[in-house]
Design brief:
Helices cover 34% and strands 22% of the residues. It is an alpha/beta fold.
Amino acid sequence: MFRRPSRVAAVVVTGAAALALTACGSDSLSNDAGAQPSGTVSSASSDAALTSQLPQKVQSAKKIVVGTDASYAPSEFLAGDGKTVQGFDVDLFKAVGQKLGVEVEFVPANFDTIITGVQGGKYDVGVSSFTVNSEREQQATMVSYYNAGTQWATAAGNPKKIDPEAACGKKIAVQKGTVQQEDDLPKRQKACTTAGKPKIDVLVYTGQDQATAAVASGKADAMLADSPVAAFAAKQSKGKLETLGDVYDAAPYGYVLPKDGTQFGDAIVKALQSLDQDGTYKSALENWGVEDGAISNFEVNPDVS
């Protein structure tokens, strides 16, 4: 991914997410960090014409089952009950579901299993900050809805003097299955070995919260993740972490649908367009402080070559 921050109530995070925040010296998300439970976006009226474009399975169940990696605040992460998935991705896609006339059920999963889960019918859609790229478009139909880039983060003050362009020999944390792990770091690793320098010690974690905790605890020297995620982690850390360098390689996030789901994708595009027009799309992003990534050109399988 790339997988790749509600401004009112504090949210206590449990499980692996709590580990990351505890390592940062925080027991919960603070008000000024931009945390707010989902469900605050105004209801969107359904459109029967869009409902008719949904797969028969979804129409019959009147529900879209969504696979999501709930370790990726502020996009999707667990609330204080350890079960409820929340975040801007959640609020936005629930609004999409309302526009389509169906319920939405979010099912936590490991990030690197979601696309295959959609392919096999376990999930109807994957919503987990997936960056749209040509490789993923060969595996699935994707619908663009947001824009993000990559951002590095390190301990406050950058005590290890990390330079993203000279990370050879450093311990760098990253989440498994992300664009950062599969594309970005391998290129940097190759540059290190070609120059005869020590390899980057890449620490790969199943959850982004675990990667964040590794940096906060000093196990890793730095991490790289999607830009809203790195910024949110730094804000939540109460001064323990900071972002490093500029955001780069901006690209769209996309919903993951079955390869033959172009009609389904067309319905989602129309729902997003309607939500953009009535202000719901903007509200869903503003509630989590991530409106800088808003787009207006929602597309099925956008050209990312």
